[in-house]
Amino acid sequence: MFKKILIANRGEIACRVIATAQKMGIQTVAVYSEADKEARHVQLADEAVLIGPAPSRESYLVADKIIAAAKATGAQAIHPGYGFLSENAEFSKRCEDEGIAFIGPRHFSIAAMGDKIESKKLAGAAGVNCIPGVNDAIETAEKAVEIAQSIGYPVMIKASAGGGGKGLRVAFNDKEAFEGFTSCRNEARNSFGDDRVFIEKFVEEPRHIEIQVLGDSHGNVIYLNERECSIQRRHQKVIEEAPSPFISDATRKAMGEQAVQLAKAVKYQSAGTVEFVVGKDQSFYFLEMNTRLQVEHPVTEAITGLDLVEMMIRVAAGEKLPIEQKDVQRNGWSIECRINAEDPFRNFLPSTGRLVRFQTPRQTMFQGNTTDLYGVRVDTGVQDGGEIPMFYDSMIAKLIVHGKDRNDAIAKMREALNGFVIRGISSNIPFQAALLAHPRFVSGDFNTGFIAEQYSQGFRAEDVPHDDHDFLAALAAFVRRKSRERAAGLSGQLPGYDVKVGQDYAVVELGQGGKNRYVLVHVAEFAGKQGEAQITVNGKTYAIASHSRLNDIRIEGTVNGQAFTAQIERGTLKNPLALQVQHNGTRIEALVMSPRMAELHKLMPYKAPPDLSRFVLSPMPGLLVDVAVQPGQKVQAGERVAVIEAMKMENVLFAAQDGVVKKVVAAKGESLTVDQMIVEFE
Question: Does a structural domain hold residue 246?
């Protein structure tokens, strides 16, 4: 067995590999860019080597620097994680040539299956059903349109070396095919250094289901059930689960056997994933094979009780697989939510910066531990006070739960999301909460178009309706009452001017445009029971008990005997005196005051925000890669104005209305902050 391995990656996957290596008694070496010098994976590893500047093309994608770091530290093997060099056949071969074990498949397997164009040809030759399309690299946008017309819209434009939603577009007409081809090539070139693009038919209403396979150097290959990955936004997975609520046992067996057959055809070693698109009638077609560890591997670990990273390390060391196909288990149900640094209420734009507060839900399952299951696990590469840089992908953490069945897993996930505290940047937690509560998700009635169909106008606060909105008001009043009790107990108060606790309050929920909601609330504390109170709102009674401290953001307790977790914060952007209450994805900002003060508050005039329609502002932090207009130019609504790159994705800004450019304020190549002015119109 290896004594020391190097992890050629960053973030949560680097931390994940380190956890298993430590369990196995293997020393670890981390590599890091200048942007990651304080990163969590650097602190967890036994050694760490600086490999270059922040951009991945100058650090994590430079094979020479990775190899040099392994040699300098005496690492016997390299685990590539996912992304970066994980599916680079040349890097795998280079490791082999240098006498360093590559903890992944052999270079010839990566070359055959990691390349999406070649893998489709091989799959077709092996008798595997493939989606209609052109598997040769396309040279021009005009040719892409011609091919798309011959196949018939809609079509999927994909980068050969793509992954993680990068370098992928769906086109429904000639214009989208032309523009999608160009964007795919640019993203693929920037993210993977390979700009080859191909086109295939887009199967409407598909399910995205993948089979996890494991192979060793002795010719053994098994499959570890399936993962349901159909909940996607812009072709990037949002929620994954195992098993799938859709496929039958017969389909599972057929898909698994076909995946094994394909893996054996390329003499596959290590962990890999064969992805299929599955139709309504459970017919399935080979999509691609990811010759690496998947982001969503923890859900497979939960239902099988296997540590996939450990399996990869043992296979790379020449060991046989410890189990056969008949030994593979499928216990319970596991769900994973990707917690991303993005603002769902601003069209999911990336959000970068300092993590002012980062507090995960209470964990009972841990990386590398296959004994303590049926609980909550968090895989992350960040920590309180850390930074989310703009140079890499947007994932902050993976939240994984394991339940006895699907309903139990959904309930566990909803409660875990309630307890996940992230401040300083925006996250997609409210969106995840909305998805988990959606009737179609709960029933398992969805496909890869689910998010696009259900949230076609974007994601709004009203898309997360609370099943008992008055509970939020009751919780605000409960916390306010506790703070008044504390203030009343302070010594040194003058007689007649001391703080009165009171029992009657008004909760003023602050709404958009000054449209506030006023609710009268009565709070009665249980005699002799500190931290407990009975709150009456609109004729409903809530017996709330919580011993969380006033300065805790995460509030835990019971309401009418049922456990709950919520988040309450004092001071908001709208009002420094307001309380922000968050539960089950719903967030309100509320003032809690006396009924008389609420009457006076209704008389306060509303001050409208300034009109910023003349300006094009940066909606997120990022790099300004292009400005498509110049002073004096007439611009029509919908016309391209600028392009911002952040977290490896291109984001195009369009003019909201017709106008004439007065001046261009920001320059190409400039790093922008949120709401920084780019262009001003006359």
Answer: yes
- The 3-state DSSP class for residue 130 equals strand
Radius of gyration over every alpha carbon of the chain, rounded to an integer in angstroms: 27
Q: What angle do CA 379, 380, 386 make, to 5 degrees?
A: 165
Shortest CA distance to 359 belongs to which of 397, 403, 400, 401? Answer: 397
Give the closest residue to 285 by CA, choosing from 227, 201, 162.
201
CA angle 127, 131, 134 (to 5 degrees): 100
What interhelical angle do 11-23 and 308-316 show, nearest 10?
Answer: 70
3-class state of residue 133 by DSSP: strand
Peptide bond into 610 cis (omega under 30): no
Sole residue written with tokens 């006033």: 550
CA atoms of 413 and 410, how far apart (whole Å): 5
For residue range 113-131, list pLDDT tens digits in order.
877 777 888 888 877 888 8
Q: Are residues 220 and 347 in the same domain?
A: yes
pLDDT digits (tens, 9 = 90+) for 192-251: 788 888 898 887 789 999 999 999 999 999 999 999 999 999 889 999 999 999 999 999
CA 75 centroid distance within chain: 31
- Distance, CA of 219 to CA of 203 (rounded, Å): 34
Collapsing DSSP states into helix, strand and coil, what is residue 646? strand
Q: Is 353 in contact with 390 (CB distance < 8 Å)?
A: no
Percent share of the chain, pLDDT over 70: 98
> Pairing between strand 677-681 and 615-617?
antiparallel
Paired tokens of 585: 């994805």
- Residues contacting residue 351 through CB under 8 Å, at least 6 positions apart: 341, 342, 343, 388, 394, 425, 426, 427, 620, 621
Indicate if 238 and 321 belong to the same structural domain: yes
Span 616-644, pLDDT tens digits: 999 888 889 999 999 999 999 889 999 99
Pick from 483, 481, 471, 475: nearest CA to 551: 483
DSSP string, 596-637: HHHHHHTTSPP-PPPP-TTEEE-SSSEEEEEE---TT-EE-T
Tell whether 93 and 49 lie within a shared domain: yes
**Cα 88 off chain centre by:** 24
Backbone angles phi, psi at 620, to 5 degrees: -160, 165
Close Cβ partners of 662 (under 8 Å, ≥ 6 residues apart): 614, 631, 680, 681, 682
Write the DSSP symbol of residue 165: T
- What is the C-alpha separation between 314 and 318, in angstroms, rounded? 7
Q: How many domains does the chain have?
A: 5
Residue 654 within any structural domain of the chain: yes
Residue 37: inside a domain, yes or no? Answer: yes
Please report whether residue 123 resides in a domain.
Answer: no
Q: What is the pLDDT of residues 652-677, one digit of tens each?
A: 899 888 999 999 999 999 988 888 99
At CA 319, angle to CA 317 and CA 321, rounded to 5? 130
* Residue linked to tokens 């799938």: 244
| Helix (H/G/I), strand (E/B), else coil: 545 | strand
pTM, 2 dp: 0.84
Of residues 453, 454, 424, the one with CA closest to residue 438? 454
- List the structure tokens of 19: 């956890």
Q: Please, where are the H alpha helices in 438-520?
A: 439-443, 450-454, 469-488
Tell me which amino acid residue 2 is.
F
What is the domain extent for residue 674?
A: 615-681
CA 79-38-102 angle, to 5 degrees, is 5
User: 3-class DSSP state for residue 393?
Assistant: coil
| Residues forming the active site | 288
